[in-house]
């Protein structure tokens, strides 16, 4: 095959065409201790409590901290193949890019490797169509860490986009894009006696929201609209970005199934469901949004060292900070418990509207290259989730009136009677700090370790809760009172990686 030198090393002309193609990929093995049941997430957020259909059923999250629940040691094998094609045309360079492969975690629910793809896009004349990466993204997780820490970054899994990028010269660009909606979900607290705020993995809602009982998000009606302005120069890069997101609820809940007309307004805790709720009407539509700014500074004469940072603020668009970790955060340790709930907003028949969830987050990392072969990074994340007074009252009403669903966190039980939570404030935060140490055996192969420490600043801190083990529970934890306190965790990860043409 004839070498194509227009786009860098590794490209060849397809015979009989002017199309240049490069085939690449990588193979990777990873091993983690105390990192949670899922290497995609981390210890406070990962895995489900659905048992494996074998004699071994402990595939749930590590948050329960027992000898049964979750797994302390997890292995992952991953292999991807990429194909990059480019061709000079009257419209400029037309590029297509495909990246597909296999991912296999052990222990896992099932025995087969999972096929996945994180890139499948077409680019020409400034346009990008397909599975690429969100144009909101700036901070890069894999540049500094092996863990899937909290951030807006969609790079690992990819994201569906349709965007146009204008170049103004001197490294300045601006993009406007329609993107796949980033949804965690609107939760209705009139939830038919099933506490939406539990430690259990939840069913998938009819409209595709994966979350909890009480799922009440309107169906996908519009794409998220994303825009950014970016500069890339020798010194580094910087970006400001904005996203608009539909954060509307579907309906007020009905208390009578199959077309009933009883639409409760008398109290926060009146149970209902989405079934037959059309007649109840719906809250006014709500627009969620996210905004952020980030920068990267290259350190000269240090083999490519750099510092990167991003700040993100969201209202009703929580996934623009919690991109990968979309479930609830929980951990139990001895006689204590800590937790935090994620949502885009809270709705209740008595409030008459959607109260949007606020999130603030900061990511920062310094990656120092001691030599071309030996690299060290120090990185950190802080994120805070806040509910306004109305949303908090709605959540507390469910926590205090729960009828023992599996995994619910409620107030203490005294003489067999469920009591209100002594302290009910569902604002919470989390911070993470880690360090990655990597040795590049060759330019295409490396071995590294990554150590991550996390601190969960719990909701309802200082109170006493009862972890109710109902029929849905497969946890070994007991139906006893727990002190609600902050939680922490150390995780350790080893990676061996080889590129086949980057």
| Integer-rounded radius of gyration | 24 Å
Shape: globular
Indicate the mean pLDDT: 82
**How many strand units?**
27
Output the strand order for the largest sheet: 2-3-4-5-6-7-8-10-11-12-13-18-19-23-24-27
Task: State the helicity in percent bands.
Answer: under 10%
Q: What is the quaternary state of this protein?
A: single chain
Q: Class by helix and strand content?
A: mainly beta
Task: Give structural attributes.
single chain, 502 residues, mainly beta, 16-stranded antiparallel barrel, five-stranded mixed β-sheet, 1 helix, 27 strands, 45% strand, globular
Write the layout of secondary structure elements.
Layout: E1 12-13, E2 20-33, E3 73-89, E4 92-106, E5 114-124, E6 127-132, E7 159-169, E8 172-179, E9 186-188, E10 224-233, E11 236-246, E12 287-298, E13 306-315, E14 329-333, E15 336-340, E16 345-347, E17 354-356, E18 358-369, E19 374-386, H1 389-401, E20 408-410, E21 413-414, E22 417-418, E23 428-442, E24 445-457, E25 464-468, E26 481-484, E27 487-499
Please tell me about this protein's structure.
- It is built from 1 helix and 27 strands.
- It starts with 11 loop residues before the first strand and ends with a strand.
- Strand 18 (358-369) and strand 19 form a beta hairpin.
- With 502 residues, the protein is mainly beta.
- 3% of the residues lie in helices and 45% in strands.
- A 16-stranded antiparallel barrel has the order 2-3-4-5-6-7-8-10-11-12-13-18-19-23-24-27. A 5-stranded mixed β-sheet has the order 14-15-26-25-20. A 3-stranded mixed β-sheet has the order 9-16-17, with helices on one face.
């Amino acid at each position: 095959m004839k070498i194509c030198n227009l786009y860098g090393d590794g490209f060849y002309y397809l015979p009989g065409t002017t199309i240049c193609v490069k085939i690449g990929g990588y193979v990777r093995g990873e091993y983690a201790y105390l990192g949670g049941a899922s290497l995609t997430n981390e210890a406070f957020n990962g895995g489900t409590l659905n048992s494996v259909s074998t004699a071994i059923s402990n595939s749930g999250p590590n948050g329960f901290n027992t000898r049964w629940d979750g797994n302390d040691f997890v292995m992952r094998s991953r292999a991807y193949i990429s194909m990059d094609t480019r061709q000079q045309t009257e419209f400029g360079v037309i590029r297509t890019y495909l990246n597909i492969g296999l991912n296999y975690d052990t222990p896992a629910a099932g025995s087969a490797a999972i096929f996945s793809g994180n890139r499948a896009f077409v680019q020409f004349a400034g346009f990008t169509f397909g599975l690429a990466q969100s144009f909101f993204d700036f901070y890069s997780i894999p540049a500094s860490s092996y863990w899937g820490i909290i951030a807006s970054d969609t790079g690992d899994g990819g994201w569906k986009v349709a965007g146009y990028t204008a170049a103004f010269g001197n490294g300045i660009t601006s993009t406007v894009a329609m993107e796949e909606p980033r949804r965690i979900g609107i939760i209705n607290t009139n939830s038919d006696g099933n506490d939406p705020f539990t430690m259990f993995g939840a069913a998938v809602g009819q409209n595709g929201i994966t979350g909890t009982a009480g799922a009440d998000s309107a169906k996908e009606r519009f794409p998220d609209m994303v825009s950014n302005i970016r500069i890339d120069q020798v010194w580094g890069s910087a970006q400001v970005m904005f996203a608009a997101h539909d954060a509307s609820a579907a309906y007020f809940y009905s208390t009578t199934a199959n077309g009933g007309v009883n639409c409760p307004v008398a109290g926060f805790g009146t149970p209902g469901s989405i079934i037959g709720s059309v007649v109840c009407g719906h809250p006014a539509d709500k627009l969620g949004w996210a905004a952020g700014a980030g920068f990267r500074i290259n350190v000269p004469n240090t083999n490519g060292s750099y510092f990167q940072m991003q700040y993100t603020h969201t209202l009703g668009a929580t996934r623009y900070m919690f991109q990968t970790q979309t479930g609830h955060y929980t951990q139990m340790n001895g006689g204590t418990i800590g937790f935090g709930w994620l949502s885009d907003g809270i709705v209740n028949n008595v409030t008459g509207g959607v109260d949007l969830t606020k999130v603030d987050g900061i990511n920062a990392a310094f990656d120092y290259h001691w030599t071309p072969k030996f690299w060290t990074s120090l990185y950190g994340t802080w994120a805070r989730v806040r509910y306004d007074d109305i949303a908090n009252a709605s959540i507390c009403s469910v926590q205090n009136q729960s009828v023992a669903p599996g995994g619910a966190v409620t107030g203490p039980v005294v003489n067999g009677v469920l009591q209100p939570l002594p302290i009910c404030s569902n604002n919470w935060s989390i911070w993470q700090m880690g360090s990655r140490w990597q040795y590049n055996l060759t330019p295409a192969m490396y071995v590294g370790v990554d150590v991550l420490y996390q601190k969960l600043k719990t909701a309802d801190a200082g109170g006493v809760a009862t972890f109710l083990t109902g029929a849905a529970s497969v946890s070994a934890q007991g139906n006893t009172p727990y002190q609600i306190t902050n939680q922490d965790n150390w995780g350790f990860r080893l990676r061996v990686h080889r590129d086949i043409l980057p």
